[in-house]
Amino acid sequence: MDPLPGATPDDTNPLRRLTLGELRRRTSMKWRAYPDDVLPLWVAEMDVPLSAPVVTAITDAVARGDTGYPAGTAYADALAGFARARWGWDGLAVERTAIVPDVMLGVVEMLKLVTGPGDPVVVNCPVYRPFYQFVTHMDRRVVEVPLGADLRIDLAALEEAFRHAVADGGRAAYLLCSPHNPTGTVHGAGELAAVATLADRYGVRVVADEIHAPVVALDARFVPYLSVPGAESGLSLMSASKAWNLAGLKAALALAGPAAADDLARVPEEVSHGPSHLGIIAHTAALRDGGDWLDAVRGGLDDNRRLLAALLAEHLPAVRYRPAEGTYLAWLDCRPLGLGDDPAAVFLARGRVALSSGPGFGTGGAGHVRLNLATSPELLTEAVRRMAAALD
């Protein structure tokens, strides 16, 4: 491949700190799933160096041999402090939290608490592919409710799904993705309160995947589901993994509303042995001391959203893209290009750019791709250039 312009190591934007050569030395999934001539903008890993407080916390722990089993509430305490400072939410009760291995395994444990085999789990599609995989693997039934044309929750359709889900008197859950993956939609307080009202009306239990909560645009506001009126019986999963690029350091927190405390208390003790102690140390440091780094990343992502919009307008004007307020993912409607249900396959084969295939996100995903924005402007520019060349 042609060499890309070098990064600027002294740049305050973490997304501009690493060169392509440095990134290719990584051995994680993003950089090992495809050959070296492919630009990987698919899986949700960021092309950034770690936040300095995280590096210090991990290396200090290793130096003192602090690599045993996890214990204590430091992670929950740090998240509670972050929630107060960032979201104005002081309702995160540490005593109503539990450590879990990661968000998706935490989702599985929460769904086990509130549903049984064969019960329906409502999701808003298109949505994160593992929702389908994990839910069906645990013998629950996925019920799709498409997002509206504005990529927001269609409350009328959601109510209809809730009504049908409990029509036989059985149990049902709603797996809420907030902010939404892959669209990046950040749900507002009014929307979430309406969801809570519907869930209470029909007896549907809400489990919220809020893994991308800290990663919103600088002018956007994330609202925790458990903070809205009527969400007292809800359950939530949060983690520092996406916002601080810590997927390889496994740790997450399950949170319960006041009326769900007894449910959370039933989580088997062995679940708490799943998280990495080093992961908990890293996530705690990120939430407690990594705010400046996070804001620098958020600013860089804002720049990349604007850059992607400009690049598409110039090189792929038929592609429909709506810059999102949350996550570091871009949902591209490529149907006008006539590339079939899976444009990602075309961009990979002809352009050597790896994107996430839309059909895997369920109904509404055909003809779309998901692009990871958390990279350098130079790599993003080259990727769009290659995508356009793939159409020649």
Keywords:
four-stranded antiparallel beta sheet, 14% strand, alpha/beta, seven-stranded mixed beta sheet, single chain, 392 residues
Brief characterization of the structure:
With about 400 residues, this protein is an alpha/beta fold.
General description of the model:
This protein has 392 residues and is of the alpha/beta class. The protein has 13 helices and 13 strands. The protein has helices at 20-23, 29-32, 52-63, 74-87, 103-114, 129-137, 155-165, 189-202, 261-264, 277-289, 291-315, 343-351, 377-389, and strands at residues 39-40, 97-100, 120-125, 141-146, 173-177, 205-209, 235-238, 252-256, 320-321, 329-333, 353-354, 356-357, 368-372. The strands form three sheets. Strands 2-8-7-6-5-3-4 form a seven-stranded mixed β-sheet, sandwiched between helices. A hairpin with a 7-residue loop joins strand 9 and strand 10. It is globular and about 60 Å long.
Rg for CA atoms: 21 Å
- Strand order of the biggest β-sheet: 2-8-7-6-5-3-4
> How much strand?
5-15%
**What do the pLDDT scores average to?**
96
Give the SSE map:
Blueprint: H1 20-23, H2 29-32, E1 39-40, H3 52-63, H4 74-87, E2 97-100, H5 103-114, E3 120-125, H6 129-137, E4 141-146, H7 155-165, E5 173-177, H8 189-202, E6 205-209, E7 235-238, E8 252-256, H9 261-264, H10 277-289, H11 291-315, E9 320-321, E10 329-333, H12 343-351, E11 353-354, E12 356-357, E13 368-372, H13 377-389
Parallel strand pairs: 1-11, 3-4, 3-5, 5-6, 6-7
Antiparallel strand pairs: 2-8, 7-8, 9-10, 10-13, 12-13
